[in-house]
Write a structure and sequence with these properties.
The chain has helices at residues 22-32, 59-71, 81-87, 100-110, 120-128, 148-154, 164-180, 185-195, 210-222, 224-230, 310-315; strands at 4-6, 12-15, 45-48, 75-77, 133-136, 139-142, 233-242, 245-251, 263-266, 300-302, 328-332, 336-339, 344-346. With 349 residues, the chain is of the alpha/beta class. The protein has a single domain (4-162, 253-346), classed as Purple Acid Phosphatase, chain A, domain 2 (4-Layer Sandwich), CATH 3.60.21.10.
């Protein structure tokens, strides 16, 4: 197992976060010109940016399809935070298709959906083999954040052949130890004692919990695998409610500090394809139109157009053809977007 691997040469089709939307994936592959097993007449190859699973109607089919395509050398992937949660056995929102302990709770929101009845160990064995980073001279792919110090660290020979799972356990333990010795730790415990019960209640607006914010920011930056797959955070101006709980730290647009020449493609950030005004806490992330490259050198592209939110459409009877939540691929080196409804849009720097 290597955490950082080389991308194949030649033209690529990079696919954004799929989140169990198997039908959207099949439509997208059709418009990209791939055959049923992922073969392309012009020898193009697929690269998935991670978050294949959770929330959507058929995560098992998405994994099975990508697994066979990878095994035949027609596709490559990097791990997203959702695959990492699964590997670390951390059942989180939308993972009830895999974790029985979440099945009932998640079904209320995401059903009807396909659960993984058999072959769970094949799924984890497959994810365990996948890298965090794929790169070549002109292009870099990571799920959430290209963080040079972390990637340099993970490139060192002592990480060769190390199991990601074991490494994550070591990093978790180290982080827990550092957190307990941090100057804000007692305040953090105190805040948690006083407010933890209301933090999942939208109606109970908490004050800005400064030590909790510092704790969350610290955790986001210090765990190498989490930092690359979740991105890094900074203390928020005010509390906001997202993903089912009150939060005190916001995602940081790391690409404003990215100055290398190689282009970077990521997923993860729930970009909106022209659908009105973004929530206040995400406005700083994307200050350019959705088909634009972003960052200090206009050479970073977030390819996640929120198809993971399509379960909301289903509840409102909005058909996929009219959905603002899309699955996208970026053709490389053409730099054209192709969507699951067949739209093709050139990107702009
Ligand atoms: Mn993600």
């Amino acid at each position: 197992m290597t955490l950082i691997r080389s991308l194949p040469s030649g033209p690529l089709d990079i696919v954004g976060d799929v989140h169990g939307q198997f039908e959207a994936l099949q439509n997208l592959l059709h418009y990209l010109g791939y055959g049923p097993e992922g073969r392309h007449p012009q020898g193009r190859r697929l690269v998935f940016v991670g978050d294949l699973v959770d929330r959507g109607p058929d995560s098992p089919a998405c994994v099975a399809w990508v697994m066979q395509a990878c095994q035949h050398g027609r596709a490559h992937m990097v791990l997203g935070n959702h695959e990492l949660n699964l590997l670390m056995h951390e059942p989180k929102d939308g993972s009830g298709w895999f974790f029985d302990s979440r099945a009932a709770k998640d079904a209320r929101q995401y059903a009807p959906w396909q659960r993984q009845e058999n072959g769970k160990s094949a799924v984890t064995a497959f994810f365990r083999q996948q890298p965090l980073v794929l790169q070549r001279q002109d292009l870099r792919i990571v799920h959430a954040a290209w963080l040079p110090e972390i990637i340099e660290e993970l490139s060192r020979p002592e990480y060769d052949g190390r199991c990601l799972l074991e490494l994550c356990r070591e990093w978790d333990a180290e982080l827990d130890c550092h957190v307990r010795h941090a100057p804000w730790y007692d305040d953090y415990l105190d805040e948690q004692r006083r407010y933890v019960h209301g933090l999942e209640n939208y109606r109970e607006v908490p004050p800005l919990l400064c030590a909790t914010a510092k704790h969350d920011v610290y955790r986001s930056c210090r765990h190498p695998a989490r930092a690359l797959t979740c991105g890094i955070e900074t203390v928020a101006d005010e509390p906001f409610f997202a993903g089912g709980r009150w939060r005190f730290s916001v995602r940081r647009p790391w690409w404003n500090d990215y100055h290398d020449a190689a282009h970077v493609v990521v997923g993860h950030y729930w970009r909106q394809w022209y659908s009105g005004r973004a929530a206040k806490h995400r406005r700083e992330m994307f200050t350019v139109p959705p088909h634009h490259w972003h960052g200090a050198r206009n050479n970073v592209f977030c390819l996640d157009f929120s198809v993971g939110a399509r379960w909301r459409d289903r509840k409102r009877d909005i058909p996929p053809s009219r959905s603002v939540h899309r699955l996208a691929a970026l053709r490389w080196p053409e730099k054209t977007l192709v969507f699951d409804n067949g739209d093709c849009v050139p990107t702009e720097a």
